[in-house]
Design a protein that fits this description.
single chain, about 240 residues, alpha/beta, eight-stranded mixed sheet, 11 helices, 8 strands, binds adenosine-5'-diphosphate, binds magnesium ion, Probable ATP-dependent RNA helicase DDX52
């Protein structure tokens, strides 16, 4: 325990909660300790990721051990792979029908996350998709794509719009993990935006029985409060300064 604390300190990681999984020493531990396929770890190395970043060291083991987290780490510190790696591993073989869902505030960000998901899932057969424009003529197509996907990335608006269609054949029952990226932006807009987002979150969470993980660059009191009340067994992870 002492040694773990020392290791976390060295990497600027602060973790608060019960029975916190040990931080990763290196990506190889994913193979030896968590049974992640060698080919998936090799993809990381091919991407030029030789060492996990601090947030990856602590968030990856938490998600792999099914722990709900609120993670706060600076921009550019590798948060995307910190949630995509464990999600892609946990999805295992493709089944079709979303089992993991990533929500983020903008289309641009959704596209970036999608590109990283395509890169990191290269060694798997999994299908990842991002919900694009919702022109009336495209709705059927979008639904069909989602039904075939294992991992879906979207803004809350687009997903909720799709879920509200009368025709929907989208089933969210199988979603096991919901990740909210740049959660600070979604929890800290105008009052109206925040209310809308929370309603959307309720809709999504009530249509699936998923675990939740939130990532952001700033510490946000409204997230901390919401998480304390809504996330069982929560672990709070902070890397670097609390820049809020
Ligand atoms: P954040 O979401 O925290 O702002 P990103 O996930 O966008 O950060 O990652 C920032 C950059 O760091 C990206 O170019 C990504 O490819 C790269 N990156 C992620 N993880 C690692 C790693 N372990 N080693 C080296 N580069 C990494
Ligand atoms: Mg990011």
């Amino acid at each position: 325990l002492e040694e773990q604390n020392h290791f976390r300190n060295e990497h600027g990681i602060k973790a608060v909660g019960r029975h916190i999984p040990n931080a990763l020493r290196d990506f190889n531990e994913l193979i030896t300790k968590y049974n992640i396929s060698r080919s998936m770890v090799e993809v990381l190395l091919q991407c030029g990721y030789s060492e996990p970043t601090p947030i990856q060291r602590q968030a990856i083991p938490c998600l792999l051990e099914n722990r709900q987290i609120v993670a706060c780490a600076p921009t550019g510190s590798g948060k995307t792979a910190a949630f995509l790696m464990p999600l892609l591993h946990m999805l295992g073989a493709p089944q079709g029908g979303p089992r993991a869902l990533v929500l983020c505030p903008t289309r641009e960000l959704a596209n970036q996350i999608y590109r990283e998901a395509i890169r990191l899932s290269a060694s798997t057969q999994l299908r990842c998709s991002v919900i694009r424009s919702l022109k009336e003529s495209k709705i059927k197509e979008r639904e069909a794509t989602i039904r075939k996907s294992d991992l879906v990335i979207s803004t809350p608006n687009r997903l909720c719009y799709l879920l509200k269609q009368d025709t929907v054949g989208i089933n969210m029952d199988k979603v096991q993990w919901l990740v909210i990226d740049e959660a600070d932006k979604l929890f800290e807009g105008s009052q109206e935006e925040v209310d809308t987002f929370r309603q959307q979150l309720d809709v999504i969470l009530s249509s699936c029985k998923s675990r939740l993980a939130m990532f952001s660059a700033t510490h946000t009191p409204s997230i901390a409060k919401w998480a304390r009340h809504n996330m069982r067994g929560l672990i709070n992870i902070t890397v670097g300064h609390r820049n809020a």
